[in-house]
């Protein structure tokens, strides 16, 4: 029993806790806070920044929501940033439900709702642009929540997160929410260095246990032996033992029979709470199961039978997701009741009422609706935003039982499921098929298990030929997924930093990036290796010391002699091969030759001329009456005819008699010493005297005359000298690595400023790096082709174009096909469009040349894939006609069109001094913003 003093202290603590804002916030929740949530929220209330790293579904967003609650109580603003618009939209609706429409705003580049609200949800790029523009919206900002902050590892957009973290004023608290990463301490230490006091809160506990299975045929088998969850596997020092039945199955032939398989699974032992009615109650051995792939409809029915729906099936292909829904419809899969189907239809009708009925067919609306009413749907970037939103809403309400999704769904969208299925463990990364990483596996399977609904979640990998259970076990049990920076200076970033801070301070800012922080940390390890090598080198020098003279000098002579001899030998070998090829090309049918070595060694007669110039291999007949090919590799120099006979054009050599008769004639010619044909005795490429032989002779003489040459311990010293030389070269390489990694980001910035100076964007004449008036326009252009866009504007590439043509040309600077397929169009909407696009190509080529010169990453080529669709849409064509000559999905067209609108808006603001161009861009925007484009946000 606690003493009176202890009881008193606890009562005081409870009283103090009850007076905190966190306590009042807890009263608004329907559940108690977990320990990691309470720890992180306490840090926020104490005015500290915080990094929260926790598994998907653990509830880390509650920390961000507390920061918003705290900001309102303090009369300050709070920003909630996300990496994608879909997540921003979802968070906006969640916060509107909590605080009302008047208190919450949304900014996503092409959408602006209540932009001066106290709570603003936005994509991270919007906040970055605000910081560079010095927006008044930043006034009274107290807290910034950065959701999915691990996205800063993204190669194309990750740098934006670091820009925001570095440039936010110090008094603003940053709440960084991340998936579980293995280097949270490193990332948190960087945040603490850049932002000031930052606490690191890491939780690796999943509130809902996750079990791992492999579906073989229509049955689920446990991946691990015994009661091992994925969390147990991850916390284990070694990978837990894999189910031996799975190992046996992985080495068995695929079944050709269609009989029903039996399950061997811990799921069949009646330990599944409210799901156990669905499980098979009998254990079967691997002999009862035939390893075969299961169709998507069969997979759904198997999961439904075992009570594992709702589920998400990740397919790393948009077309695959759409095909899966079609297959379910064709197989008459129905996971909803009549009442649920009616509710779904009513919701769809309301949500899509703004769509033009003439566009519904090309949008794939009818099949999409049919799938939804059956309880199945696809979710990927090619869908219309409203379609994706309907799927997310219906799934969260439990009306959709199976969603086939690409990996983008794993990024923050609040769509937890009871089970997650992975069709395969490889994906296409834009260039080739690669294995998914442990981090990606964790992110995907982390969707399984709904907190407060499910007592456990299930991750299922579908069996397919070649699947190794050990590979799945490795993915499920590893937690080695570090967060690595993708930060690199861009042209726009450099222009903005130069304008605001000047060159020297900009370098210091860039050196404070997480990328440089990680590079500097890696340098520490390399420097330790250098110091270790230097100690070893000192020992080697002592061991190779010779009392007769400088053995380092002697070893250098030996090494140079060896290298020159090898080089000379290679030169002779190349000369001999060239001589052999040249002489073979001169051989004619009837020439008798003497092959010096190889399996065809001996006399032979040439039957045909060589056909290939690079690898000539003429047909020959040996004295043993065998048909062969003469190979240059069998020769160590030129081969010259020694005699000749006449070979008839009718000779085929198909019969043994023909071959024997020909061989007999060869012997007769050699016996009678018949001369070779005239002109066949040539000289081929005599060796040039380059002075190499004299150099070698001189080195040999110097070596023999060196004092160390007569040392009795010479060879022992030589071995130590060779070790010293190899380690010295390795150490020099490490020193070069240190030099390259030190101040690497600032060095890239320096190269960018030199390139910008070449184009007149930066002036060095004052002794400082000063941004010129041309460079000022670059500050307001954001995108992958920022400098190219600016160069084209300087050239007036849009002058004289009508609004539709303007939009079409600008699309070439925005659109990027999934696969690089650069090419010109066979025809253009107008001569003006063609002329403008040729200007774009000219400036891109010039820019690429400059980037090569300054050793900078090259700007990707303009893509004309959206020129015609954008032009058709701007001219008022309907969606069907607009997309008829394109491979674009409707959702992709809408997404890219909105990005073209955003780019036109940027150009309009950059061109504020050119009223004509501004009016031209605004007119183009108005033409594009109609129909399905205008209704999506």
Q: Would you give an account of this structure?
A:
With 937 residues, the protein is of the alpha/beta class. Helix content is 47%, strand content 11%. It has 33 helices and 24 strands. It has an 8-stranded mixed β-sheet with strand order 4-3-5-2-6-7-1-8, sandwiched between helices. The protein has a 7-stranded mixed β-sheet with strand order 10-9-17-14-11-13-12, sandwiched between helices. Strand 6, helix 7 and strand 7 form a beta-alpha-beta unit. Helix 3 packs parallel to helix 4, helix 26 crosses helix 28 and helix 31 runs antiparallel to helix 32. It starts with a helix and ends with a helix.
* Rg measurement, Å: 37 Å
CA(first)-CA(last) distance: 61 Å
Shape: globular
Helix content: 40-55%
Q: Please give the order of strands in the largest beta sheet.
A: 4-3-5-2-6-7-1-8
Largest sheet: 8 strands, mixed
Structural class: alpha/beta
Number of helices: 33
Low-confidence stretches: 254-266, 268-286
Mean pLDDT: 84
Q: What distinguishing features does this structure have?
A:
single chain, about 950 residues, alpha/beta, 7-stranded mixed beta sheet, about 45% helix
Concise structural overview:
The chain is an alpha/beta fold and 937 residues long. Helices cover 47% and strands 11% of the residues. 40% of the residues are buried.
Topology:
Blueprint: H1 4-18, H2 21-27, H3 35-45, E1 49-53, H4 61-73, E2 77-82, H5 85-99, E3 104-107, E4 112-113, E5 119-123, H6 124-133, E6 141-146, H7 159-167, E7 173-178, H8 184-195, E8 198-202, E9 210-216, E10 219-222, H9 230-235, H10 244-250, H11 296-305, E11 311-314, H12 318-330, H13 338-351, H14 365-374, E12 376-379, H15 385-396, E13 402-405, E14 419-422, E15 426-428, E16 433-435, H16 438-445, E17 457-462, H17 469-477, H18 491-511, H19 514-543, H20 551-586, E18 591-595, E19 602-606, E20 619-622, E21 627-629, E22 643-644, H21 656-671, H22 692-705, H23 714-741, H24 744-758, E23 762-763, E24 770-771, H25 773-778, H26 786-794, H27 803-811, H28 831-853, H29 867-874, H30 879-883, H31 890-910, H32 915-928, H33 931-935
Helix pairs in contact: 3-4, 6-7, 12-14, 13-14, 16-17, 18-24, 19-23, 20-22, 26-28, 27-28, 27-29, 27-32, 31-32
């Amino acid at each position: 029993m606690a003493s009176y003093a202890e009881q008193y202290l606890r009562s005081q603590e409870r009283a103090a806790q009850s007076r905190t804002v966190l306590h009042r916030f807890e009263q608004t929740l329907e559940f108690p806070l977990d320990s990691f949530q309470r720890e992180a929220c306490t840090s926020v209330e104490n005015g500290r920044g915080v990094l929260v790293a926790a598994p998907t579904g653990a509830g880390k967003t509650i920390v961000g929501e507390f920061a918003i609650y705290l900001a309102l109580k303090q009369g300050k603003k709070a920003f909630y940033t996300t990496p994608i618009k879909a997540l921003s939209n979802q968070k906006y609706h969640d916060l509107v439900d909590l605080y009302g429409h008047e208190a919450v705003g949304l900014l996503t580049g092409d959408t602006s709702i209540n932009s001066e609200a106290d709570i603003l949800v936005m994509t991270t790029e919007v906040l970055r642009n605000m910081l560079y523009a010095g927006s008044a919206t930043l006034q009274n900002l107290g807290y910034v929540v950065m959701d999915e902050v691990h996205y800063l590892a993204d190669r194309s957009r990750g740098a934006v997160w670091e820009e925001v973290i570095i440039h936010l004023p110090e008094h603003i608290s940053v709440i960084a929410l991340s998936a579980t990463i293995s280097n949270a301490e490193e990332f948190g230490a960087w945040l603490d260095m850049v932002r000031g006091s930052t606490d690191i809160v890491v939780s690796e506990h999943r509130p809902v246990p996750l079990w791992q299975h492999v579906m073989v045929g229509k049955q689920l088998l446990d991946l691990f032996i015994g009661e091992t969850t994925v969390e147990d596997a991850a916390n284990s020092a070694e990978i837990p033992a894999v189910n031996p039945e799975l190992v046996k199955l992985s080495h068995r032939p695929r079944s050709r029979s269609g009989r029903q398989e039996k399950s061997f699974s811990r799921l069949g032992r009646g330990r599944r709470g409210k799901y156990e009615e669905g499980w098979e109650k009998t254990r079967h051995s691997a002999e009862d199961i035939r390893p075969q792939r299961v169709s998507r409809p069969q997979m759904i029915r198997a999961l439904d039978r075992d009570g594992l729906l709702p589920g998400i099936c990740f397919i790393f292909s948009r077309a695959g997701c759409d095909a899966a829904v079609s297959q379910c419809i064709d197989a008459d899969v129905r996971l909803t009741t009549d009442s649920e189907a009616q509710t779904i239809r009513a919701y769809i009708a309301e949500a899509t009422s703004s769509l033009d009925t003439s566009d519904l067919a090309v949008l794939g609306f009818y099949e999409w609706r049919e799938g939804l009413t059956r309880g199945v749907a696809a979710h990927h970037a090619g869908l219309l935003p409203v379609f994706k939103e309907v799927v997310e809403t219906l799934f969260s309400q439990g009306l959709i039982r199976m969603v086939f999704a690409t990996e983008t769904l794993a990024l923050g969208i609040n769509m937890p499921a009871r089970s997650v299925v992975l069709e395969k463990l490889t994906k296409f990364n834009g260039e080739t098929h690669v294995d998914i990483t442990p981090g990606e596996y964790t992110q995907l399977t982390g969707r399984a298990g709904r907190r407060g609904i499910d007592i456990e979640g299930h991750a299922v990998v579908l069996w397919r030929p070649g699947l190794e259970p050990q590979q799945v076990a490795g993915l499920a049990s590893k937690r080695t997924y570090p967060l690595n920076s993708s930060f690199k200076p861009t042209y726009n970033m450099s222009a903005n930093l130069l304008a605001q801070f000047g060159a020297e301070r900009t370098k210091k800012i860039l050196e404070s990036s997480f990328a440089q922080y990680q590079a500097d940390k890696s340098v520490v390890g390399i420097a330790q290796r250098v110091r270790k090598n230097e100690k070893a080198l000192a020992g080697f020098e002592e061991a190779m010391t010779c009392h007769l003279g400088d053995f380092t000098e002697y070893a250098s002579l030996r090494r140079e002699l060896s290298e020159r001899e090898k080089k000379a030998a290679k030169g002779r070998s190349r000369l001999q091969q060239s001589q052999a090829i040249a002489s073979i090309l001169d051989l004619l049918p009837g020439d008798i030759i003497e092959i010096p070595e190889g399996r065809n060694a001996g006399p032979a007669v040439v039957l045909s001329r060589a056909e290939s110039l690079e690898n000539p291999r003429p047909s020959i007949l040996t004295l043993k009456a065998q048909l062969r090919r003469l190979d240059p590799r069998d020769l160590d120099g030129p081969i010259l005819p020694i005699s000749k006979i006449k070979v008839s054009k009718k000779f085929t050599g198909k019969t043994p008699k023909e071959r024997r008769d020909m061989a007999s004639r060869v012997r007769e010619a050699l016996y009678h010493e018949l001369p070779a044909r005239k002109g066949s005795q040539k000289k081929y490429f005599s060796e040039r005297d380059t002075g190499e032989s004299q150099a070698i002779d001189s080195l040999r003489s110097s070596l023999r005359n060196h004092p160390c040459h007569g040392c009795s311990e010479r060879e022992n010293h030589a071995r130590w000298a060779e070790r010293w030389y190899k380690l010295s070269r390795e150490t020099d390489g490490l020193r070069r690595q240190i030099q390259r990694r030190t101040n690497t980001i600032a060095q890239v910035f320096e190269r960018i400023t030199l390139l910008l100076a070449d184009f007149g964007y930066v002036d060095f004449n004052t002794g400082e790096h000063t941004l010129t008036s041309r460079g000022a326009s670059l500050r307001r252009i954001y995108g992958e082709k920022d400098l190219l866009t600016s160069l084209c504007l300087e050239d007036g590439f849009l002058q004289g174009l009508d609004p539709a043509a303007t939009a079409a040309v600008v699309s070439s600077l925005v659109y990027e096909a999934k696969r690089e397929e650069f090419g010109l169009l066979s025809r253009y909407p107008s001569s003006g469009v063609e002329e403008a696009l040729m200007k774009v190509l000219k400036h891109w080529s010039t820019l690429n040349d400059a980037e090569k010169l300054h050793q900078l990453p090259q700007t990707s080529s303009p893509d004309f894939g959206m020129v015609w669709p954008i032009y058709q849409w701007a001219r008022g064509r309907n969606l069907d006609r607009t997309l008829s000559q394109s491979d674009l999905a409707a959702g992709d067209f809408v997404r890219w069109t909105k990005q073209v609108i955003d780019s036109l808006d940027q150009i309009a603001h950059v061109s504020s001094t050119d009223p004509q161009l501004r009016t031209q861009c605004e007119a183009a925007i108005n033409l594009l913003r109609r129909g399905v484009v205008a209704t999506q946000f």
